[in-house]
């Protein structure tokens, strides 16, 4: 177990990527075993771990039970884990057992004990908590490594989890499969612009959530509810150093003028250009819609006039045929009377 700050930072700086196939498998496991209950599901993670990059590419479920009243009482079938691991090695030898997962949504008191069990199969097991019922937008995974925390007062070290950033990445074959699964969910009628705006909105909501967590942590440190962690503060300082300075005065500008810097001015111009393009697009879309509406009304009116004209022609032809029939009937009766008169004269 790492006992120094450098070794702890080595875990924090690792790049953990989770495949979408793992997310689908965990959600299916939860829906089959624990949906509608307060239980969590546990499984094994398979993939590659080269020391810097951790790739979680596959997983399988494990029989797991725990007491809801006493978190220290739990059961995990390690014989099942060993048998399944041997069978997965026969299918793909590159996928090794690198850790385990559970459906959380947060850390539990027994997680450290379960993590010690998985140290039989790998030196530093990875724990990934997958939120199968997310209430907020963002990445539904949280990755952790177990470390020994050294206290400043020199007392006995205690084991704890260190959070590691995680991302969702898919290979080409996985992207095709995920697109096929989401084809029925995605609304094809929605345009590309609305899709991009929705994605940006979700990204901003995720950023707001992270900033709120940072604010909560700093407030607790200020209120002395949490100890000062110089590693966390150093990372926050690096983040703040990357932020652009929007109040830098423009070169050659009036020092007594506004404090809007060159970057702020460029962002304003860029934003105005984008808003102008959106405004023109909306105008064109509205004009096109009105044009289609007018064309539709003209076509409907023409079709109605054609139907009425056809009805009038049919009525005129019907009247004409009736008149012809009447005339033919009158001419027939006249010829019959003319044929009968000579016969009468002959009889006389």
From TrEMBL:
<protein>
    <recommendedName>
        <fullName>MPN domain-containing protein</fullName>
    </recommendedName>
</protein>
<dbReference type="InterPro" id="IPR000555">
    <property type="entry name" value="JAMM/MPN+_dom"/>
</dbReference>
<dbReference type="InterPro" id="IPR033858">
    <property type="entry name" value="MPN_RPN7_8"/>
</dbReference>
<dbReference type="Pfam" id="PF13012">
    <property type="entry name" value="MitMem_reg"/>
</dbReference>
<keyword id="KW-0647">Proteasome</keyword>
<feature type="domain" description="MPN">
    <location>
        <begin position="16"/>
        <end position="150"/>
    </location>
</feature>
<feature type="compositionally biased region" description="Basic and acidic residues">
    <location>
        <begin position="303"/>
        <end position="328"/>
    </location>
</feature>
<dbReference type="GO" id="GO:0008541">
    <property type="term" value="C:proteasome regulatory particle, lid subcomplex"/>
</dbReference>
<comment type="function">
    <text>Acts as a regulatory subunit of the 26S proteasome which is involved in the ATP-dependent degradation of ubiquitinated proteins.</text>
</comment>
<dbReference type="GO" id="GO:0008237">
    <property type="term" value="F:metallopeptidase activity"/>
</dbReference>
<dbReference type="InterPro" id="IPR037518">
    <property type="entry name" value="MPN"/>
</dbReference>
<feature type="region of interest" description="Disordered">
    <location>
        <begin position="300"/>
        <end position="348"/>
    </location>
</feature>
<comment type="similarity">
    <text>Belongs to the peptidase M67A family.</text>
</comment>
<feature type="compositionally biased region" description="Basic and acidic residues">
    <location>
        <begin position="337"/>
        <end position="348"/>
    </location>
</feature>
<dbReference type="Pfam" id="PF01398">
    <property type="entry name" value="JAB"/>
</dbReference>
<dbReference type="InterPro" id="IPR024969">
    <property type="entry name" value="EIF3F/CSN6-like_C"/>
</dbReference>
<dbReference type="GO" id="GO:0043161">
    <property type="term" value="P:proteasome-mediated ubiquitin-dependent protein catabolic process"/>
</dbReference>
């Amino acid at each position: 177990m790492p006992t120094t700050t450098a070794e702890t930072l080595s875990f924090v700086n690792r790049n953990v990527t989770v495949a979408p196939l793992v997310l689908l498998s965990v959600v299916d496991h939860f829906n089959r075993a624990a949906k509608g209950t307060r239980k969590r599901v546990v499984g094994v993670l398979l993939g590659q771990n080269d020391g810097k990059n951790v790739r979680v590419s596959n997983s399988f479920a494990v029989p797991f039970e725990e007491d809801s009243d006493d978190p220290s009482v739990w059961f995990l079938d390690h014989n099942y884990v060993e048998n399944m691991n041997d069978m997965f090695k026969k299918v793909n030898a590159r996928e090794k057992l690198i850790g385990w997962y559970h459906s959380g949504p947060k850390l539990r008191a027994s997680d450290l004990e379960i993590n010690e069990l998985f140290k039989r199969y790998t030196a530093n097991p990875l724990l990934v908590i997958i939120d199968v019922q997310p209430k907020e937008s963002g990445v539904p995974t949280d990755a952790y490594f177990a470390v020994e925390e050294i206290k400043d007062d020199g007392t006995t070290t205690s084991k704890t989890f260190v959070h590691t950033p995680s991302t969702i990445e898919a290979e080409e074959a996985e992207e095709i499969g995920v697109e096929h699964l989401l084809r029925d969910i995605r609304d094809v009628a929605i345009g590309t612009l609305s899709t991009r705006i929705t994605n940006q909105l979700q990204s901003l909501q995720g950023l707001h959530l992270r900033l709120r967590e940072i604010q909560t942590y700093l407030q607790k440190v200020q209120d002395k509810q949490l100890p000062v962690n110089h590693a966390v503060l150093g990372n926050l300082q690096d983040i703040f150093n990357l932020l652009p300075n929007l109040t830098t005065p423009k070169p050659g500008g009036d020092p007594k003028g506004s404090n809007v810097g060159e970057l702020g001015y460029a962002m304003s111009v860029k934003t105005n250009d984008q808003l102008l393009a959106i405004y023109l697009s909306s105008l064109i879309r509205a004009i096109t819609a009105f044009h289609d509406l007018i064309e539709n009304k003209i076509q409907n009116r023409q079709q109605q006039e054609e139907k009425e004209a056809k009805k009038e022609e049919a009525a005129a032809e019907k009247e004409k045929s009736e008149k012809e029939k009447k005339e033919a009937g009158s001419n027939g009766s006249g010829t019959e009377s003319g044929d009968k008169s000579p016969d009468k004269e002959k009889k006389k």
